[in-house]
Amino acid sequence: MAPAAVPVSLPASTSTALTNASIKRDLANGAASTKPHLDASKLTYEWNTKPKTVPATDDPVRRLQNSTTDHMITVKWTEANGWETPELKPYGPFQLEPTASCLHYATEAFEGMKAYRGVDGKLRLFRPDLNAKRMNLSSVRIALPSIQPEELEKLIKEFISIDGPKWLKDPNTFIYLRPAIIGSGAQLGVQRPREATLFIIAVLFPPMDKPTGMRLLASTEDMGVRAWHGGHGASKVGANYGPTLQAQGAAGARGFDQVLWLLGPEGRVTEAGASNFFVVWKNKTTGRTQLVTAPLDDRIILDGVTRRSVLELARKHLSHEATEPRAGGEDLEKIEVVEENFTITDLIQAYDEGRLLEAFACGTAFFLAPINGIQYKDKDMEVPMPVTAKDGSKAGKYGGVIKTWLKEIMYGVVDHPWGVVINERGPQ
Known about the structure:
The chain is an alpha+beta fold. The protein has helices at residues 17-32, 101-105, 128-141, 149-167, 245-253, 305-317, 344-352, 397-410; strands at 44-45, 71-78, 82-83, 87-90, 108-110, 113-117, 123-126, 173-183, 195-203, 214-218, 258-263, 268-272, 275-282, 289-293, 336-339, 356-363, 367-376, 379-382, 387-388, 394-395, 419-421. It is built from eight helices and 21 strands. Helix 1 packs across helix 3 (128-141). It catalyses: L-leucine + 2-oxoglutarate = 4-methyl-2-oxopentanoate + L-glutamate; L-valine + 2-oxoglutarate = 3-methyl-2-oxobutanoate + L-glutamate; L-isoleucine + 2-oxoglutarate = (S)-3-methyl-2-oxopentanoate + L-glutamate.
């Protein structure tokens, strides 16, 4: 699978064939439409005449995750006229009719990204092409318009080139970016939206990867499921998240950081909260060390950008077929990199037999977070975290080195094509 390509092949089954065919049709129609496409070159600018003050790095306001930068980008789409002119303007509220589709039918898709200030002083995005392609797929999945990924990527780059210089000054810092699209038309009734609004904002986020590790509560039948066969778990849409918040809150009240979501009577392991989940264990049959995560082929889990990057780095530097040894991984035992289904029973058995070596969750918000414990019903598993870094944080051997490699790319310690340097301009 090419690194820059988000898969668009969809599994066919009796229950999903119609939806899959519709998605493919909408993607093709969007690309071939004669109505105006999204065009970043037409972006207009309205500068914020009342700019905000940037809070200090240790200001508690950052933990609220509601402090935004000075500007945002918005662009409207209508069924009748296609994409209108993109606008960069002062950050502010939207005006929506109470009958807007997004308020009633969850016609909303989004991406989570970060911009990074490198140790070399440069501003970077991490693999923004993947986010733009995935957002196009998510938008079409909920009957919103097809988005030209290359043009969306250009808008994201331009946005951070304007607000990044002021809001992201210090090396080794980041800011969270949220491109999103909503069904914004004033229409009630279960029907395809005839109007949508795409927007891009930036929000101050605290670091969320826990240096002491995360503790997971494995879901049980009374907690529901995060995604299901034939559903929309592979799309980054709001409808995936709201229904999980009740269980997440209950887990938090019991002292857990996230829910480890299981699926079906067999307890198939899927995701940890809204993050992809990995284990490192010794295979029961062969005894070989494996890095294992759930597969994408049945579209239960999200094709995470961090997940994809973890797999590619592991295959390139740590697997038996590794083509390039890399500092930090040369002394580690070679591993098999596996994308396949496994169950909570498999996980418990590996733990009981001493074959479970480590586990971690990964995603844009939590980055790569080691797991220190998993509880399922009355079974409590303490997951090994044998490595202590210079800053006192702990991790597993493999997760720790992969996290280091990712940080080196994001913050410009190494020159890598995944770290896309932004030409900074600031407000003119």
